[in-house]
């Protein structure tokens, strides 16, 4: 199995993606770790992981699920403000942000 660094530089965030046939419904979860631990980030540097952002989807994935997951993933790194939100924001603040994002996409 190939792995890639999942730590986002200059944050405490790790972004995990998993697509598998046993996953029945797409899911986005935020896990705040009780204690940080060291991982390698996307720049191949050591960082402290404090929060996991977990994107799960079924395989195969339909086009609307691909679009939804891509929107979430892109939003995380879209701006410094979004990085700050996903790194430090409450789950409610992040949920509000994503709701607004999807409402904009629907219009």
TrEMBL record:
InterPro entries: PTrfase/Anion_transptr (IPR016152), PTS_EIIA_type-2_dom (IPR002178). SUPFAM superfamilies: Phoshotransferase/anion transport protein. Coiled coil: none annotated. Signal peptide: none annotated. Residues 1-101 form the PTS EIIA type-2 domain. It comes from the Bacteria. Transmembrane segments: none annotated. This is Mannitol operon activator, BglG family. It comes from Marinilactibacillus psychrotolerans 42ea.
């Amino acid at each position: 199995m190939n792995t890639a660094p999942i730590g986002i530089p200059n944050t405490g965030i790790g972004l995990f993606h998993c697509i598998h046939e046993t996953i029945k419904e797409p899911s986005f979860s935020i896990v705040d770790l009780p204690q940080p631990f060291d991982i390698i980030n996307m720049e191949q540097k050591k960082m402290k992981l404090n929060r996991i952002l977990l994107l799960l989807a079924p395989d195969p994935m339909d086009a609307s699920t691909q679009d939804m997951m891509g929107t979430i993933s892109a939003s995380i790194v879209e701006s410094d403000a979004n990085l700050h939100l996903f790194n430090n924001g409450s789950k409610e603040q992040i949920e509000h942000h994503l709701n607004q994002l999807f409402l904009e996409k629907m219009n």
